[in-house]
Amino acid sequence: MNFDFATVMVVAVVITGALWALDVWLWRPKRRQAAERLKQQGVEEKVITNTIKEPVLVEYARSFFPVILAVLVLRSFLVEPFRIPSGSMMPTLLSGDFILVNKFAYGIRLPVVNTKIIELDQPERGDVVVFRYPEDPSVDYIKRVVGLPGDTISYFGKQIYVNGELAKQTSLGPYIATGEGGYMTGADLRLEQLDAVEHKILVVKGRPSKEGEYVVPEGHYFVMGDNRDNSNDSRVWGFVPDENLVGRAFMIWMNWDGVQDRVSWERIGTIID
Fold first, then answer.
1. Is residue 242 exposed (0-12), middle (13-18) or buried (19+ Cβ within 10 Å)?
2. Can 143 be counted among the known catalytic residues?
3. What pTM does this model have?
4. In this protein, which residues make up the domain named Peptidase S26 (predicted)?
5. pLDDT in the model for residue 263
6. By three-state DSSP, how is residue 129 classified?
7. Per-residue DSSP letters for 19-54?
8. What is the pLDDT of residue 142?
9. What residue spans define the domains of the chain?
10. What are phi and psi of 69, to 5 degrees?
11. Domain 85-271 classified CATH 2.10.109.10?
């Protein structure tokens, strides 16, 4: 079962907020009234203090509510961290990278229900996006946007054609991998240009690729991994609906090299192109 952090946070906000509100509007006035009656009866101060004291559960709710609310707002509307679990976006992203995702880049959405309430920008060709996997929306994927609504995308001979125009590629020689990406050492490292975005990709010469021509429907996007011969992407399962978009990846804030069991300090702060 996948852990739905947003749902847990929303439930926590509702429960802690409700407890705090009930105390402010209902329980606290009753405690004060009871304390006042005891005071008029001449009861000792210690008993009165204990009567008016807020319950431990309410105290915890009052303390945690603003913290949980702040985290929920931050993660839902501003920035959310993600961990890269595989090498499908090598060499741009490595397994073990921890990235930050801009949650408002493509519009403001309500948490849990994911309904867009404010329209902002649309994905551009070359953006690295996080989205809910169309075949299992409980799973988050990350890929690069190649095709926009209405585009015809072709992939033949390990090269992309956008509306019949070849996306320029320049060979940079064999790839020298590090960390958990060691299995890709020797792959062909190339510099590819999608509109104004230049980024590096990996291809394995001689390995069969999923090829074909795809017409992107309105309200959908065609995405691919930068590790072209090791990516489960739109060539396999189709297009990403706009409502599945989570946000645009923009920075690596940490990397854990699982092979050497260390932090890769050189990757911290890397901007994702």
1. middle
2. yes
3. 0.87
4. 58-254
5. 93
6. strand
7. HHHHIIIIIHHHHHHHHHHHHHTT--HHHHHHHHSP
8. 98
9. 5-77, 85-271
10. -60, -40
11. yes
Q: Convert the pLDDT of each residue in 192-240 to its tens digit.
A: 999 999 999 999 998 998 999 999 999 999 999 999 999 999 999 999 9
Q: What is the pLDDT of residue 259?
A: 86
For the four alpha carbons of 132, 229, 163 and 197, in that order, the dihedral sign comes to positive
One of 143, 154, 231, 264 is an active-site residue; which one?
Answer: 143
pLDDT at 1: 35
Measured CA to CA, the distance from residue 202 to residue 189 in angstroms comes to 5
Q: Which is catalytic among the residues 76, 88, 95, 154?
A: 88
Please report which confidence band the pLDDT of residue 78 belongs to, taking 50, 70 and 90 as the band edges. very high
> Minimal CA–CA distance to 209: which of 172, 235, 175?
235
**Dist. CA 28–CA 85, nearest whole Å:** 49
What is the pLDDT, as a whole number, of residue 35?
86
Say what the pLDDT of residue 3 is.
59
Instruction: Tell the burial category of 122 from Cβ atoms under 10 Å away from its Cβ (0-12, 13-18, 19+).
Output: middle
> 82 in helix, strand or coil?
strand
The span from the CA of 35 to the CA of 177, in Å, is 71
Local structure of 63: helix, strand or coil: helix
